[in-house]
Amino acid sequence: MSGRELLDELAAQESRLVFDHFDEQTAWDLGVALREAGLAAGLPIAISIRRNGQELFHAALPGASADNDGWLARKSAVVDRYGRSSLRVGEEFRVNGGSFDEDSRLDVSRFAAHGGAFPILVRGTGCIGTVAVSGLPQLDDHRLVVETLEAVLGRD
Question: Which domains does the chain show, CATH number per domain?
Fold first, then answer.
């Protein structure tokens, strides 16, 4: 898949994976679904769900470390700033011949455009938070979040 095709797919995911509402119970249900998927596959991941800067769900599965929490924060900061998935932001820089780390002019100790953080999008409102996973290669982190969102939202 070319960079442009990947960007188109990432944009389509964001258009499709939209909540009608998002509250504490929704965050809990999504977080539990991610945790159960991670446990079932034996994945060494950390999970974070935030709404408007408030952490509503956090879990660390066996094999995850404090380093994963740092990645969660940095990837989520990218979503908060751009309103798009961290993978999509990084890929946009690559497709345009650049590098997020060098060309974004953002502090790389606070921002990471690597896959695994996805915007929580609410119909009629837009991006209100993030759901993020860290512990796998970036495409796998992203895929796990998207597949879980699809299951929770009943879309694929």
Answer: 3-153 (3.30.450.150)
